[in-house]
Design goal:
Layout (H helix, E strand, L loop, with lengths): L4 H37 L7 H9 L5 H21 L1 H25 L16 H17 L14 H30 L9 E2 L16 H4 L12 E7 L4 H10 L7 E5 L21 E4 L5 E2 L5 E6 L2 E6 L13
Parallel strand pairs: 1-5, 2-3, 3-4
Antiparallel strand pairs: 2-6, 6-7
């Protein structure tokens, strides 16, 4: 080897080690952390709306099952990265590519720039997650991993180790998530409640009577005059900043009869820690039944007239509300 080739050779070694660390350590750890947060949280709320809609299109109505399947797929690719060096780079690239695709759909298709659910309910913004995932993918593409000479990675040992890891991860994932589902059903106010629910198409509500909309039938008690005249209904969370801003801005002294419907934060009920003080003393107040994992973008504002829905929108913008039509 000539003296001029030494720097290039050292550079190749460094690049190879960086690539190996990315696909065998950094990316698997990144994916495992997100997967574990979703499993321990055990709620379909951590799934992006685009994924829920895709699952619905594929006929997967059980959101808990959908969550378990998707997390299991993540663990499958992690197993390949950790134990099968020949497939580690491909597996990491596929996973990061899928993450980037989902994040793109969430941001540009659904207008979601707040939370992607990548780390469970409390997650970073899609923009930050997109930047991190893209950086990792570029690093993997640029830095080709060095070939591992570890004896454990040779022959059938790698595939056996990967298989054991994947099976254990799948058992842990399905048992944890499905246990959470059963626990929620056991504490339900009504055994006929679904395990989870979200409004997949609010446009279908237009022109319908609230008596024919499932969500309105799962409210504990409506005011006796809910079918009379023009009214607003707000489904909100006790700890939702956007809900607080909407109510303070437009409903502190409502000119139109308004009903506030509190959404349980979990299948176990309400958490009043950090709840904002409700300024609408003239509003009627009720709540959704406990036991369902309510996947609702709050505040959900509905305008009704004589019991007929005239407008409905999730994540209502308090600065420029779409459904304050009266």
């Amino acid at each position: 080897m000539t003296e001029s080739n030494i720097p290039a050779s050292k550079q190749a070694i460094v690049i190879g080690w960086i690539g190996a660390l990315l696909v065998r350590l950094v990316v698997p750890a990144w994916i495992i952390y997100g997967a574990m947060q979703k499993v321990l949280g055990g709620t379909p709320k951590s799934l992006p709306r685009s994924v829920l809609d895709a699952g619905n299109t594929l006929g997967i109505k059980d959101h808990f099952l959908l969550l378990a399947i998707l997390v299991s797929i993540e663990f499958f690719f992690v197993g390949l990265m950790l134990f099968v060096p020949k497939l580690a780079r491909i597996a990491a690239s596929i996973m990061l590519g899928v993450f980037l695709l989902v994040l793109s759909v969430e941001m540009f298709g659904y207008g979601n720039y707040e939370s992607c659910g990548c780390f469970g309910e409390k997650s970073l913004s899609p923009i930050i997650m997109f930047a991190i995932d893209l950086s990792l993918l570029v690093g993997i593409v640029i830095c080709k991993p060095r070939i591992s000479k570890c004896h454990m990675n040779k022959g059938k040992r790698a595939h056996i180790a990967a298989g054991i890891f994947i099976i254990l991860a799948w058992v842990f994932t399905f048992s944890s998530i499905m246990y959470g589902k059963e626990k929620g059903n056991n504490g339900s106010d009504d055994p006929t409640l679904p395990a989870s629910w979200y409004p997949n198409d609010l446009n279908d509500w237009m022109g319908k009577s609230i008596d024919n909309i499932d969500l309105f039938g799962w409210v504990k008690e409506w005011p006796h005059d809910i079918h009379v005249g023009k009214q607003y209904v707000i489904f909100y969370s006790l700890t939702c900043d956007h809900c607080e801003a909407l109510i303070y801005s437009h409903f502190e002294f409502p000119s139109i009869p308004t009903t506030l419907v509190t959404i349980p934060q979990s299948t176990e009920g309400f958490n009043y820690d950090g709840a904002f003080e409700n300024p609408c003393y003239e509003c009627s107040k009720t709540e959704l039944l406990v036991g369902t994992d309510w996947i609702i973008g709050t505040p959900l504002l509905v305008a009704i007239e004589n019991g007929i829905v005239k407008c409905a929108t999730e994540n209502e913008d308090f600065e420029a509300p779409a459904c304050l039509i009266w």
